[in-house]
Amino acid sequence: MPRLTWQAAELVTSTPETGTARTLRLRVPGWRGHLAGQHVDVRLTAEDGYSTRRSYSLAGPADGEFLDLTVESVPDGEVSPYLTEIMRPGDQVEIRGPVGGWFVWRPGGDRPVLLVAGGSGIVPLMAMVRARRQAGSDTPFRLVYSVRGPDNVYYADELRRPDPGLDVSYLYTRSVPEGVSRPAGRVTQADLAEAGRPAALAPDCYVCGPTGFVETAADLLLALGHAPERIRTERFGPSGG
């Protein structure tokens, strides 16, 4: 496997997803491609030589020399506020990747897929949804998306559009929109039993979100009878942003 090196990435567009998150389309000459579920490191370097870096999941499948990152601005962060509030088309950062080879989905499999997202953990799972669509795959996908409220949903318009073979369910933890009967609250076993897929179908399960959410969701899937080897997890914790 070739050694990963830092590459220049130029911002092409910056699109709002929520009040605090944006999707950045970057152009990376010579980008060697990536798989849905992988991530990259982003490095910023100040004029005095100080540098800092953060890891961000890729939000879409391989697309030539272009890649998409969805970044949530973290208050007092060192990297995310620059990426979401200051960086303009034509500006550059350095990236290194792609990173990761286990938490990935490749078109061509015949197993159904269950995606369980907590908050911004939707990003690598959305890359899988988009990779499925790009490949014209008929693999059945089901997404269970736990999010604070309707204003916090990433990719809201895209997820509302009909996508044959993709089922989407929302679990709201703080604010419930009108017409939704489930009260606000964290994910439960009953939620995953109703909105997920039966363990008897042996789906490939991908769970991503904050550490506590991922641990809880993975335990609930195990309690529902899903095989441990079919549950893949990706988690993130507090950082400087």
From TrEMBL:
<dbReference type="InterPro" id="IPR001433">
    <property type="entry name" value="OxRdtase_FAD/NAD-bd"/>
</dbReference>
<dbReference type="InterPro" id="IPR017927">
    <property type="entry name" value="FAD-bd_FR_type"/>
</dbReference>
<feature type="domain" description="FAD-binding FR-type">
    <location>
        <begin position="4"/>
        <end position="105"/>
    </location>
</feature>
<dbReference type="InterPro" id="IPR008333">
    <property type="entry name" value="Cbr1-like_FAD-bd_dom"/>
</dbReference>
<dbReference type="InterPro" id="IPR050415">
    <property type="entry name" value="MRET"/>
</dbReference>
<dbReference type="Pfam" id="PF00970">
    <property type="entry name" value="FAD_binding_6"/>
</dbReference>
<dbReference type="InterPro" id="IPR017938">
    <property type="entry name" value="Riboflavin_synthase-like_b-brl"/>
</dbReference>
<dbReference type="GO" id="GO:0016491">
    <property type="term" value="F:oxidoreductase activity"/>
</dbReference>
<keyword id="KW-0408">Iron</keyword>
<dbReference type="InterPro" id="IPR039261">
    <property type="entry name" value="FNR_nucleotide-bd"/>
</dbReference>
<protein>
    <submittedName>
        <fullName>Ferredoxin-NADP reductase</fullName>
    </submittedName>
</protein>
<keyword id="KW-0479">Metal-binding</keyword>
<dbReference type="GO" id="GO:0051537">
    <property type="term" value="F:2 iron, 2 sulfur cluster binding"/>
</dbReference>
<dbReference type="Pfam" id="PF00175">
    <property type="entry name" value="NAD_binding_1"/>
</dbReference>
<keyword id="KW-0001">2Fe-2S</keyword>
<keyword id="KW-0411">Iron-sulfur</keyword>
